[in-house]
Design brief:
320 residues; alpha/beta; four-stranded antiparallel sheet; 8 helices; globular
Length: 320
């Protein structure tokens, strides 16, 4: 087992993880590098289409006070939606779905990119963006140069206000970007080194790459092992460590400026279900947790993030 990140072959630890999001329960071999810490699939499946059925992609809903699909990896959405509902007095008209998306996109900027709040003319590319909900919302907030690209689109998308979402990969996009974002897409890509090299080649001088991914080690990974929900075999090819991300960045000519953990209570909710042999696709009323349990998960998530032990993180990579 040779690590694809640092080339180490000594002391790597083997694991067997099951596909549990869809409930297929197929087993896949993984290993964790003893040198750089990256957890990675041993062999790429020959065909991945079966693991990305239409049901995999959370459908966008247009009813009021329904969170858009892209927000679910960014926030503790149930808690945020509860806060928003409480903010409206009885009988008051809630915001439209579009306005709600704008409010959440503004939170993304405040939380992840506070220095970019006024950079409305910045060229921003969202890689692995699905149908582009986040960049559509950013466009409505006044960002004039936003585009997206996703390999799994049925066809390219162009909105009435000119926002383009291309079908393809980062390798299909031209250079000239001030900010390139990958929100929970990087772990699905079979050649992370090539992706970072492509990002470095397409960033303007001084440009920034924001990558959000699951990471190891983490409290949830240590507690649940192969039942950890973000293992997500076989879709997640690489579950990086801080060390493996630094190595990849340096090899691509990028510098890691910093990172912070941004895990949500899903790290415990999903993992508890898998430990009970319950797939996400099978989860119904019997899979609900009490308000007390959810409060405990939220408190533990806050503490884990503060200690750098949350199960996902945002990395900031600067073009050198």
């Amino acid at each position: 087992m040779r690590c694809r990140i640092c080339d180490n072959q000594e002391g790597n630890v083997a694991y067997t993880a099951r596909e549990m999001m869809l409930g297929l329960r197929q087993e896949f071999a993984y290993f964790r590098c003893a040198a750089c810490g990256c957890l990675q699939i041993a062999d790429f499946p020959a065909e991945m289409a079966a693991y990305y059925p239409p049901a995999y992609f959370r459908p966008e809903r247009n009813d009021r006070l329904s969170a858009p699909a892209w927000a679910y990896t960014l926030f503790d959405v149930p808690a945020i939606m509860q806060q928003m509902r409480r903010a409206f007095p009885p009988g008051a008209a809630p915001p439209t779905h579009e306005r709600l998306a704008e409010m959440l996109a503004a939170q993304v900027l405040r939380h992840y990119l506070p220095d970019w709040a006024q950079r409305k003319k910045a060229a921003i590319l969202d890689v692995g963006c699905g149908r582009g909900g986040l960049i559509h919302a950013l466009s409505r907030l006044g960002y004039t140069h936003v585009q997206g690209v996703d390999l799994y689109l049925d066809a390219p998308i162009r909105t009435a206000n000119g926002v383009a979402v291309h079908k393809g990969t980062i390798h299909d996009m031209p250079p000239g970007w001030d900010l390139i974002m990958l929100h929970h897409a990087f772990e699905h890509m079979p050649d992370p080194q090539a992706v970072l090299q492509a990002a470095a080649q397409r960033l303007n001088p001084g440009g920034l790459c924001l990558i959000r991914i699951p990471i190891v080690p983490s409290l949830a990974w240590e507690r649940y092992g192969v039942d950890w929900v973000q293992w997500d075999a076989p879709r997640h090819f690489f579950l990086h460590s801080v060390q493996s991300m630094a190595l990849l960045a340096a090899q691509a000519g990028l510098r890691v400026e910093g990172h912070f953990c941004d895990a949500t209570p899903f790290q415990f909710v999903g993992s508890e279900l898998y430990r009970r042999d319950m797939a996400l696709a099978e989860a119904g009323p019997q899979a609900r947790f009490t308000p007390q349990e959810m409060a405990a998960f939220r408190a533990e998530t806050t503490h884990a993030n503060a200690a750098g032990r949350g199960d996902q993180a945002a990395f900031y990579l600067r073009r050198q």
